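Researcher: Please predict.
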Amino acid sequence: MAGKIVWRKVCLGKVLEVGVVTWSLATAIVPVVAGFMPGLVLSRILVGIGEGVSPSAATDLIARSIPLQERSRAVAVVFGGLSFGSVLGLLFAPPIIQNLGWESVFYIFGLLGIVWCLGFESLKVQRFGDKEGILNLGQSSTGSDGLISSAMSSESSHSSLEDLQNSLKDVPWGAFFKSKAVWAMIYAHFCGSWGHYTCLSWLPTFFSEELNLNLTEAAWVSVLPPLGSMIITSIAAPFADNLISNGVDTTKVRKICQTIAFVSPATFMMLSSVDLGLPPWEIVAFLTSGLALSSFALSGLYCTHQDISREYASILLGITNTVGAVPGIVGIALTGFLLDSTHSWSISLFVPSIFFYLTGTAVWLAFASSEPQDFSKSEPES
């Protein structure tokens, strides 16, 4: 069993690197395949694969190495980087394109991913070194770090594939879907993603057509939600960790944070969808504030996977994240269909998001839990 745990941890560390390399290379080759549709589609698929596995691998590393009282800040740093990257991308992409051409954006951003991987590999070596192996795993069960390194280096690809198959067979899939807490996470992830993806896709058009902002103003306004998210994340994470450190029940903390993440955007969307005669910039402020406050989810939902199961945190995030990707396909298309049919931004964009935010809150408060779940007898929890 110890050998399987060692292999799985090392594998997930590599998965994170492979995921980043995959989407970085797929991004960098876009200018090369831009005139060849199958190649362009393949590059987008590879980006999706790379981005799909990386959050789960990062979640696993956090779950295994960060104590409960510091978990919210760790998750905020890792996943809050999405907002930081969005701000930098929106700010730097236009001048890069203007001065170096559109192809340069893909080359530069792809190269940055490769540089990150080299830095991550160097950090692992500095942090753990040769003495402790890649992740300092399983010392007490093997008796010699040298034996671990030797065993790992001598494994054949056939053995690694066999270990992967055995690891997947050992996953208690049935137990996951019998848990009300897991279903609460699945639905919450779906609801949060619906609001996030639809707003990300349609708010620039809303600002331009409904609020009569010009394209330049709409572009600058698009920077505000991720910028606000960075600010809110820096407040929400210490807030959650301090509550837990002071003895507040972890489940209660996660419920408080996720409720803020859902009720806040729902409230501001309600105010924005009602004709109160507000000037455009007040509506922009409302929507920006609501989307920024939704970042409390990093201290709510996104920590719960690790709270309930350190061993299976990555798999649980993979499950909820898969369901959470559905609104990116269905929600965006449905919003466009409703907008064409009703010509109403309230009905097409705001009402569905408000519905999911509020029902997501109700389900979360009723069924969410951060208590460690006994998904398998062999799962160690502390």
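Model: Residues 1-133 form a domain with the Growth Hormone; Chain: A; fold (CATH 1.20.1250.20).
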